[in-house]
From TrEMBL:
The keyword Transmembrane helix applies. It catalyses: ATP + protein L-histidine = ADP + protein N-phospho-L-histidine. It comes from the Bacteria. This is histidine kinase. Residues 168-256 form the Histidine kinase domain. Its EC number is 2.7.13.3. The chain crosses the membrane at residues 12-32. It comes from Faecalibacter macacae. InterPro entries: HATPase_C_sf (IPR036890), HATPase_dom (IPR003594), His_kinase_dom (IPR005467), Sensor_HK_TwoCompSys (IPR050482), Sig_transdc_His_kin_sub3_dim/P (IPR011712). Keywords: ATP-binding, Kinase, Membrane, Nucleotide-binding, Phosphoprotein, Transferase, Transmembrane, Transmembrane helix, Two-component regulatory system. It is an enzyme of class 2 (transferase). It holds the Pfam family HisKA_3.
Length: 256
């Protein structure tokens, strides 16, 4: 009997063949796994690049808007406020005993215009943020309403990062306060700002009627909030319930 016909030899070759097949299958599976992993990584890379691109685009749009607001606010201040103040000074210098009432009314109207102009310029571009910082500007917001009690609880030494971040956070807080006053039916707003493990967290809440988060009205400044917070890469979440008020939780990216 030939050696290759020996049953032991045949069994050996069968075993070797099976081992080779198993090794080949393992190798093919490994290649498929590597290929799949690379495909996933490639898809994630494309997704992240798209996400970053969208975020940078939003950031650029918001930066442009802020610059435009700054120019408009500056023009309003320089061209209107200064001239109105000059008119008031001239009226004060007049000796018009027979027109005291009329002049008094004119002065009142002009002072009202000056205040409205100041409010508009402050809304368009809160210049004080660049000079005083976000914390003091938020404190000023707390005194902006006679209808609501607005309380701030915060560490004054918190570093919010670039000015763009401060401007957007100010806008978001301002928007929340405005919406609460208009729609919530409450009378109290609390603002908590804290820094835990180099991550700034902001909680804004009111004691109003709340809102249906499943049927939220995007026209109430929600879209603006999403755009502004996404542009500075901040995470946020709304919480609300019937007659339980509304809360907005914001978390900034941790600083190094």
């Amino acid at each position: 009997m030939e050696k290759w016909q020996d049953p032991n030899v045949i069994i050996l070759w069968i075993v070797i063949t099976l081992i080779l097949l198993v090794v080949l299958m393992i190798f093919i599976s490994y290649l498929i796994k590597i290929s799949y992993k690379k495909d996933i990584e490639k898809r994630e890379l494309v997704f992240n690049e798209k996400l970053n691109s969208e975020r940078e685009m939003k950031k650029a749009i918001i930066t442009t808007q802020e610059n435009e607001r700054k120019v408009i606010a500056s023009e309003l201040h320089d061209q209107i406020s200064n001239k109105l103040n000059l008119v008031v000074l001239k009226l004060n210098a007049l000796d018009a005993n027979t027109f005291d009432t009329e002049i008094g009314e004119i002065k009142t109207d002009i002072k009202t215009l000056i205040k409205k102009n100041r409010d508009i310029t402050h809304y368009l571009f809160p210049v004080e943020i660049d000079n005083l910082g976000l914390f003091l500007c938020i404190k000023e917001l707390c005194y902006s309403s006679n209808e609501f009690s607005i309380d701030l609880f915060a560490d004054e030494n918190i570093d919010f990062g670039p000015k763009l971040v401060e401007h957007q956070l100010y806008r978001v807080i301002q928007e929340f306060i405005t919406n609460s006053i208009k729609y919530s039916g409450g009378n109290q707003i609390n603002i908590h700002i804290k820094n835990i493990n180099n991550q700034v967290s902001i909680l804004i809440s009111d004691n109003g009627i709340g809102m249906d988060l499943n049927n939220i009205n995007k026209g109430l400044g929600i879209n603006n909030t999403e755009t502004r917070l996404d542009a500075i890469n901040a995470k946020f979440k709304y919480k609300s319930g019937k007659n339980k008020g509304t809360r907005l939780i914001i978390k900034l990216c941790p600083t190094k």
